[in-house]
């Protein structure tokens, strides 16, 4: 069980999504991936993709226009 | 009373209507319906279908003229309609106001959702890609006589075959573009 930070600040769509997809593939079941984003459309498509895959997802607003999408690799 | 006012914005943050209407983005379906309605209004009011990128060519021409240049001989601005637009100025150019509305509307939306942030430039690669991408899109949109709004969206909406031809070209371009993006930006 580890937590991995993925810095996608300053990246526009669809880069955060592709980066998150690639990163999650490297992780073990039970690991957490925290994607840092500041692009509001990534705040929509990253959680949407992760939920569709069946992972547990939480979005936290850490600052104005800055979010952390926390994805638990459940399977 | 004083105390209550001080907490107004804190209370607003958790208000369900604030969250629903201003904080959370609209769903794609809501946005699509609104876009469709407003493009009909645009066509009905201005007698022209909705377009976005053509305006930038006009702005460019105005800037060029302001520093002493002349576009009178340019093929793109040769038609009497284009000349009339250039002569009419910003105040009479509905398309310019619509674009300004998009820019300031986007700013207002992000401020209302308290999501405004000046983003850092991450790498030189980003700057080059943005500049190159902008140039290609701008140039491509002009030689195609429209962008994904004027040529594609408005084209298809007015039952023109050209809109569908544009869609095929754009789809192929998007496939190539995505491959390049993944190759050079991941």
From TrEMBL, chain A:
Assigned protein family: Belongs to the sulfur carrier protein TusA family.
Domain UPF0033 intervals: 6-30
CDD domains, A to Z: SirA_YedF_YeeD
Identification of the protein by name: Sulfurtransferase TusA family protein
InterPro entries assigned to the protein according to its UniProt record, in alphabetical order: TusA-like (IPR001455), TusA-like_sf (IPR036868)
UniProtKB/TrEMBL annotation, chain B:
Annotated compartments: Cell inner membrane
Membrane topology classification: Multi-pass membrane protein
Keywords, sorted A to Z: Cell inner membrane, Cell membrane, Membrane, Transmembrane, Transmembrane helix, Transport
Transmembrane regions listed in the UniProt entry: 21-45, 97-116, 128-153, 159-182
Annotated InterPro entries: Sulf_transp_TsuA/YedE
UniProt cross-references to Pfam families, sorted A to Z: Sulf_transp (PF04143)
Family: Belongs to the TsuA/YedE (TC 9.B.102) family.
Protein name as it appears in the record: YeeE/YedE thiosulfate transporter family protein
């Amino acid at each position: 069980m580890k937590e991995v930070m993925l810095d996608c600040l300053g990246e526009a769509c669809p880069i955060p999504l592709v980066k998150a997809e690639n990163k999650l593939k490297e992780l073990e079941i039970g690991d957490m991936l925290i994607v840092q984003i500041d692009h509001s459309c990534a705040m929509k498509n990253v959680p949407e993709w992760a939920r569709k895959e069946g992972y547990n997802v939480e979005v936290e607003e850490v600052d104005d226009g800055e979010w952390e999408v926390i994805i638990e690799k459940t399977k | 009373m004083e105390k209550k006012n001080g907490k107004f914005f804190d209370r607003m943050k958790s208000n369900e209507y604030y969250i629903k209407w201003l904080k959370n983005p609209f769903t794609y379906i809501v946005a699509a319906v609104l876009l469709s309605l407003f493009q009909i209004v645009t066509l009905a009011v201005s007698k022209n279908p909705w377009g976005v990128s053509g305006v930038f060519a006009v702005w460019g021409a105005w800037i060029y003229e302001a520093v002493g240049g002349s576009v009178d001989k340019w093929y793109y601005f040769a038609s009497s309609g284009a000349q009339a637009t250039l002569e009419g100025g910003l105040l009479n150019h509905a398309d310019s106001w619509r674009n300004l509305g998009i820019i300031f509307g986007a700013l207002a939306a992000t401020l209302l959702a308290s999501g405004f942030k000046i983003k850092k430039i991450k790498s030189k690669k980003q700057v080059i890609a943005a500049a190159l991408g902008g140039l290609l899109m701008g140039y491509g949109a002009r030689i195609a006589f429209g962008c994904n709004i004027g040529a594609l969206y408005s084209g298809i909406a007015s039952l023109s075959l050209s809109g569908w031809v544009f869609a095929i070209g754009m789809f192929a371009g998007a496939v190539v573009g995505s491959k390049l993006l993944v190759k050079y930006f991941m």
